[in-house]
Amino acid sequence: MDAVYACVVHAAGDLRIEEREAVAPGAGQVAVRIAYGGICGSDLHYYRDGGVGDFKVRQPLVLGHEVVGRISQGTDEFAEGAPVGIHPAAPCGTCAECRRDRRNICAYSNYLGSAARDPHIQGGFVQELIVPVDQVRVLPPGLELRTAVLAEPLSVAIHAVRQAGEGAVDGKRVLVTGAGPIGLLVVAALRQSGAREVVVSDLHETPLTLATQVGATHTVQVGTADWPDEIDVAIEASGTAGGLRTCLERVRRCGTVVQVGSLPGGDTAFAGNVLMTRELTLTGAFRFDHEFDTAIDWLAGGLPVDPIVTHTFPLADAKAAFDLASDRTTASKVLLDLSVGTPR
Ligand SMILES: [Zn+2]
Ligand SMILES: [Zn+2]
């Protein structure tokens, strides 16, 4: 193929569309012509802050880990033209976590578009991506690429719900702080998992409207409304210290709090005495593993998540896409369409 273009961050505020050499897949790999890429909160942090959490950009990084497309150079198993989703993680397979089937927290995992390791793992916002076959999933018939691109963040959400414990949300009242794309997908995953009531809080009205569309039963615009009581489980998806405090204070005594939002780098003020005196359980949720297949199944089954994708931009307009995706009063999940537009 001709030149392929990629969306590359060099430093805070320095996002470029750059040509990349098209390479052929090696043994055990396929080439995927990327159709859509979802802009994630972590991509936005790399762009705005030059890093996410404690991971700093130290060399040019192709962003993107939420990508879908069609096989362009395949194998017997993966026919050319087949629509595929891409699992972004390549765990080491041999460390203690991998051997315990906790591959999502493998410290040696290569995750698409991540500065967690040095050298960085280049991402999927590139028009043709070479990827190992075991990260490729052929999509079921009828599942549109535009919808399938939510499989990655939905997997994060499903994992967060599972971290609350087996059956912990079934028939229960659950709070979600933060109605960004992850929070919204957590809402959908909670309803699918049998949560009876889902309360969602956010600073802004637009994301709360979306929350209702994907299954929230009650919304709280922070500072303007009352909170329901007797919350069994709280899932922190805002990535703010305030959100974590809200979860610790609002969940019932003996309740469970799951931190899935990425907090700012460094130390976070933490209401430890609230945890101690109320005997709460606090747990983290990081990425996902087998949940990716569940996410594809749920999306193919019609999980009502379409309202979450609010905008689509051609790759050439990536900067505008990133700027809009940062505006939480207007946008939720913003997609890059990598199949169109010659970069200028
Ligand atoms: Zn993501
Ligand atoms: Zn490992």
Q: What's the helix and strand layout?
A:
Layout: E1 4-11, E2 14-20, E3 29-38, H1 41-49, E4 51-52, E5 55-56, E6 61-62, E7 67-73, E8 83-86, E9 89-90, H2 96-99, E10 110-111, E11 128-132, E12 136-138, H3 145-148, H4 151-163, E13 173-177, H5 181-192, E14 197-202, H6 205-213, E15 218-221, E16 231-236, H7 241-250, E17 251-259, H8 272-277, E18 281-284, H9 291-300, E19 309-314, H10 318-325, E20 333-337
Parallel strand pairs: 13-14, 13-16, 14-15, 16-17, 17-18, 19-20
Antiparallel strand pairs: 1-2, 1-6, 3-7, 3-11, 3-20, 4-5, 7-8, 8-12, 9-10
The chain binds zinc ion (ZN) (2 copies).
The site of one zinc ion (ZN) has 6 residues, from helix 4.
Describe the structure.
This protein has 344 residues and is of the alpha/beta class. The protein folds into two domains: 4-150 and 305-337, Medium-chain alcohol dehydrogenases, catalytic domain (Quinone Oxidoreductase, Chain A, domain 1); 155-284, NAD(P)-binding Rossmann-like Domain (Rossmann fold, 3-Layer(aba) Sandwich). It contains ten helices and 20 strands. Helix 4 (151-163) packs across helix 5 (181-192) and helix 4 (151-163) packs across helix 9. The longest helix is centred in the middle third of the chain and has 13 residues, at 151-163. It is globular, with a radius of gyration of 20 Å. The mean pLDDT is 95. One zinc ion (ZN) binds at residues 40, 42, 65-66, 152-153.
Compressed to H and E, one letter per element, the order equals: EEEHEEEEEEHEEEHHEHEHEEHEHEHEHE
What is the domain tally? 2
The number of strands is: 20
- Contiguous low-pLDDT stretches (5 residues minimum) are none
Task: Estimate the strand proportion.
Answer: 25-35%
How would a crystallographer describe the biggest sheet? 7 strands, mixed
Which cofactor or ligand species appear? zinc ion
Shape: globular
Which structural category do the helix and sheet elements fall into? alpha/beta
- Through-space gap between termini: 19 Å
Radius of gyration, taken over Cα atoms and rounded to an integer in Å: 20 Å
Architecture (CATH level 2) name of the largest domain: Alpha-Beta Complex
| Overall residue-averaged pLDDT value | 95
- Helix residue percentage: 10-25%
CATH class of the largest domain: Alpha Beta
| CATH fold category name of the largest domain | Quinone Oxidoreductase, Chain A, domain 1
What's the number of helices? 10
Considering the protein shown, what is the CATH homologous superfamily of the largest domain?
Medium-chain alcohol dehydrogenases, catalytic domain
